[in-house]
Amino acid sequence: MVELADKHLDVHAEYLNGNFTVQKSPRKFSLIAKDRSHKQTNKVFQGNGRASDLYDYKDAIALYILAGPDCVRIIEEFERVHKQLELSTGHHEEARSLQSRFLQDVQSFMKVVIAMGNPFLSTCQDLIALDTRAVMDEAVAVYLCQVHEFGQALHEE
């Protein structure tokens, strides 16, 4: 991926245009990688091993490659109609229960900050746990401050 822009200009252009994902549902933020989509399609088509014998026959594989995606689409349409699934177009985190839980978490965090003091305003050089005010060992704090540079060096290596 690091050399994609230099070695494969056409692939890099398609990547920048977003042509590396598939949207299988109308939900927001539900794009998945093309290889993951292909695996899901295979799983739906094969079911509980119904299509596993296809791989023994060259003609069956060719037919599967051509007809498999349409068969899966028909199966999914059938299940959607007969199960009367309501597909929400909203993101799963927009649900009222998740939003109220998030609000509770924020309010709990704010209570801790008010009770213990705002750790982000501290001028102390120590690494302190927010909930217990335990001070980390100095070697751990130094390592955490350098972890990005360490990871970058490993990546370049």
Count every beta strand, where a strand is a DSSP E run of 2 or more residues.
2
Strand content: under 5%
Helix-strand pattern: HHEEHHHH
- What's the helical proportion of residues? 55-70%
What structural class do helix, strand and pairing data support?
mainly alpha
Q: Which descriptor suits the 3D outline?
A: extended
Regions with pLDDT < 50 over 5+ consecutive residues? none
Radius of gyration from the alpha-carbon trace, in angstroms? 25 Å
Number of helical runs?
6
Report, as a whole number of angstroms, the end-to-end distance. Answer: 15 Å
Output mean pLDDT.
Answer: 79
Spatial strand arrangement across the major sheet: 1-2
The domain tally reads 2
Sheet with the most strands, sense and barrel status: 2 strands, antiparallel
